[in-house]
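Collaborator request log, item 7. Partner lab (contact: R.S.) asked for a structural prediction of MYO1B protein to inform their binding assays.
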Amino acid sequence: QDNSFEQFIINYCNEKLQQIFIELTLKEEQEEYIREGIEWTHIEYFNNAIICDLIENNQTGILAMLDEECLRPGTVTDDTFLEKLNQVCATHQHFESRMSKCSRFLNDTSLPHSCFRIQHYAGKVMYQVEGFVDKNNDLLYRDLSQAMWKANHSLIKALFPEGNPAKINLKRPPTAGSQFKASVATLMKNLQTKNPNYIRCIKPNDKKAPHIFNEALVCHQIRYLGLLENVRVRRAGYAFRQAYEPCLERYKMLCKQTWPHWRGPARAGVEVLFSELGIPEEEFSFGRSKIFIRNPRTLFKLEDLRKQRLEDLATLIEKIYRGWKCRTRFLLMKKCQIVIASWYRRYA
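Returned to partner:
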């Protein structure tokens, strides 16, 4: 119910994670259809970049203004910070405050005068401005760090490396918000170099008890995790996509024209394969470099046919091997019989 600087930082990190989730799933999904030349009806989804900009913009972002209040001379309080927010963010569509120059929230009794509210992608969150400035400063006095660094215990010395006289810096230490912002930027850069897989965990109830399903709680989690947009994009699009070469290599055994070897472009081979199997045209589309399959059941059908074909091929190999083995044994016995018969006739 009471959200302060700590929850604000946590929600900022959630916004950044949601942003990269959007870029790597929803946005990339739709851009791939355009890139591959697939006919596609664009699905609208909420892009939370505007909320991230509200928080982290270097000039007008909330963190930047908080740092500016912490560093400027003169009397600095939480109220002066809120006043600065009310001046700069008054017209922002995701910022709400009763003290702002915007008159939209002057009569909103659910919003106290000492608070501001941000409309996050998951919903509106109200923050108590009290303590923002002090928590953002996060000052550790230099003489305390130097005293701890001089301790004989190696662990204590390791915890206060800034106390080392060789590393004394007269500059003001970075604020908690700027440190966290830099850490989040490093995390985002690291994630963008990877190929992440998302696992979304849903709590069925708050009691951690079995056989209890709280529908309102589950719906709330689905909404703020952004799963609805993801499901809409997935259902409107194609469940499976694969380059032509590996697709043809995997399923070429299902068609006599492509088995055992296909002479020609891989796309032409896939077209012949799907035509031979009689798969309805609305179930797939041919992109510039990939085959797109709309429903999972079509893929399951291909896998079942491939599994049956592998069993048939295994049976064929076994049959040929057994025939070769029996014929080889028969020919050997026949040869031995002729040798024995010839020697017997010689001495008979």
